[in-house]
């Protein structure tokens, strides 16, 4: 009973084995007479599971890395977005490599044209896994049928052409903005195969091609170049799946020069005009506080608004940009015109005249910053004549002095003939002295003393506060434009020479 049951089980297992075992040679389609096959039938036989494994890289029979050759065609590039340090690019990327398993030259000698297909054909083949190392967003190798073109030549050469739409980081240097030049790179690296298994190369002839119709509005495309490098990855670098080793890398960089016409017309020329408008206050009288303050503050606010609108498109960086140097320079000139008004207005409101040794900038500024009362005013404040018993001479001298002071008449401008004529016409001050004869001095004595003092103080000039204020305004009309011109010379020399 037990033996019969064992025999039945064995027979059952044999039947099952004979029923479900499929000979491998019957499932592998033959490649003979491939000339009569269609393109689809031929590629299906070449990529059948018995002959082809798309998870394994092509093996040439020797432990050598497979060489993948790359070519790029740039047909669109968007202006750099400085605030995000990125740019957008559309590239047609072509990969070329040899896969001996796809050779059909011997099995189909009459077929001379390559097998062409799209995404479906590419998905049946082994592909070198390549990624963009500096990408922010990309569609490498495409997802649509129209984005991919696959070609298999009779000798097994595979060409994959893919359209790439990518947003890439570009670490811009904005120190000379808006006169800067940028170099933005597109970096391709092998993902899962290190240099012992796969090596990337640029094509020998024209590896990088730019569409002749490509045009940028803010930049000039000044050149492009390619580079081949090897990236070393350790266990701390997760960019390659935390696999350590050396990975092949390709990159191409574009040299972009910024067009400055927009910034000259919309920023630099208006700011120059705003600074020049602030100098109009030098032609207004120093006591006209309202118009001069309004002119200075309005130009300052206008320029700050202009500069802030221009700076909103830039990232916040730690270093100083050229545009900021220009902003600080123009702000200082506008602020200087306000300070100049405050200075001359303060001098204008002074009550005392100032003695100046010489009529030059040094002595006028020195006397203005450290004002000293007029020497003649100090002499007039004292009695010019000895007092008499009645004190009338002293009183007459003081009355004459008060008269000159109230009417703001500098004594050095009164000549002897004018004084004599005044004595004959105005008897309100000298009548008492002439009639009584009790005074120790007369008006002629005052004039003689004044003329003697003027001879002693030869070379000194008395200036009123109003004269000093107008003199400072006249100097500012030349000093400010000259200083701004010198600032422009140094600024533009640094921009275009340094």
Give the SSE map:
Blueprint: H1 2-20, H2 24-27, H3 39-46, E1 66-77, E2 86-98, E3 115-117, H4 119-123, E4 130-132, E5 135-138, E6 148-152, E7 157-169, E8 181-190, E9 198-202, E10 208-210, E11 219-233, E12 245-258, H5 261-278, H6 289-311, H7 322-348, E13 354-356, H8 361-369, H9 375-380, H10 392-406, H11 416-425, H12 431-436, H13 443-456, E14 461-463, H14 465-496
Helix pairs in contact: 5-6, 5-7, 6-7, 7-14, 11-13
CATH class of the largest domain: Mainly Beta
Mean pLDDT: 77
- Could you describe the largest sheet, including whether it forms a barrel? 8 strands, mixed
Give the name of the CATH architecture of the largest domain: Distorted Sandwich
Q: Over all CA atoms, what is the radius of gyration?
A: 48 Å
Task: Please report the total strand number as a whole number.
Answer: 14
List SSEs in N-to-C order: HHHEEEHEEEEEEEEEHHHEHHHHHHEH
**What share of residues are in beta strands?**
15-25%
Helix percent band: 25-40%
Class from secondary-structure proportions: alpha+beta
Q: What's the domain count? A: 3
Regions with pLDDT < 50 over 5+ consecutive residues? 18-25, 374-441, 446-457
Shape call: rod-shaped
**CATH topology assignment of the largest domain:** Acetylcholine Binding Protein, Chain: A
Specify the CATH homologous superfamily of the largest domain: Neurotransmitter-gated ion-channel ligand-binding domain
Termini, distance in Å?
106 Å
Multimeric organization: single chain
Number of helices: 14
